[in-house]
Amino acid sequence: MSAALTYSLDRRPEAEAIRALYAAAPLRRPIHDPERIRRMFDGSNVVISAWDGERLVGLLRGWTDFVYDGYICDLAVHPAHQKAGVGRRLLELAQGLDEGIQWVLQAAPLARDYYARVGWQKIENGWKMDRAGWRPGPYEAYQAEHADLAAKA
C-alpha cells in the first residue's frame, strides 16, 4: 500500500478492474458478466474511485439528481485498504456533490454495522422489489467461485 491514495470523481475504471475489486471486497455483483458490469456503470451518474497508483482500491457507484435525492448502489474497498478511511472518504466525496442531497443505500449483510459507525442513520421506511434473474447465493460460495478474479485486484 502506498502512502497517498488518490480519489477521482471523473476517472471511470475498466470493467476488469471493477470485477476484480468486487470479487476481492467481496461485493456480490454479477462479475461473471463483464458486459452487465459495464452497463451498470454506463447507467450511473456518480462514480467515485480510489487509486493506489494505477491500482483500483475503492469504488462508489450511485445515482443522483444533484439537487435532492441520491442513492449509493455500491461501495467497495479492497481488503488491504479497509479500515484505512477509504470507504468513509468515498462517501464524503459523494455527500460533497451538493449539501441538499439526501443519500440512501441498501447495505450488504456484511456492511450493515459499518454505515452506523460512519454516521449514517438506519431507515425503516423503505421498500424493495427483488430483481428477476441472477441471485448470487451465500457469500462463502461466491468468494470461492471468484477467488482467482479477486487475486487480480
Structural description of this entry:
This protein is an alpha+beta fold. It is built from six helices and five strands, in the order βααβββαβααα. It has a five-stranded mixed β-sheet with strand order 1-2-3-4-5. Helix 1 (15-24) packs across helix 2. The mean pLDDT is 91.
| Percentage of residues in helical conformation | 25-40%
How many independent structural domains? 1
The residue ranges in which pLDDT falls below 50 over 5 or more consecutive positions are none
Question: Any idea what the CATH architecture is?
Answer: 3-Layer(aba) Sandwich
- SSE topology string: EHHEEEHEHHH
- As for the CATH topology, it is Aminopeptidase
Q: In angstroms, what separates the terminal alpha carbons? A: 13 Å
Q: How many H/I helical runs?
A: 6
Average predicted local confidence, pLDDT: 91
What structural class is derived from the secondary structure elements?
alpha+beta
Gyration radius over CA: 15 Å
Query: Biggest sheet, open or closed, and with what strands and sense?
Result: 5 strands, mixed
Count every beta strand, where a strand is a DSSP E run of 2 or more residues: 5
Portion in beta strands: 15-25%
Question: By CATH's scheme, which homologous superfamily applies?
Answer: Gcn5-related N-acetyltransferase (GNAT)
Domain N-acetyltransferase: 5-145
Protein name: N-acetyltransferase
Pfam families: Acetyltransf_10
InterPro entries: Acyl_CoA_acyltransferase, GNAT_dom
Task: Please render the helix and strand layout as text.
Layout: E1 6-8, H1 15-24, H2 34-42, E2 46-52, E3 55-64, E4 69-77, H3 86-95, E5 102-105, H4 112-117, H5 139-145, H6 147-150
Parallel strand pairs: 4-5
Antiparallel strand pairs: 1-2, 2-3, 3-4
Helix pairs in contact: 1-2
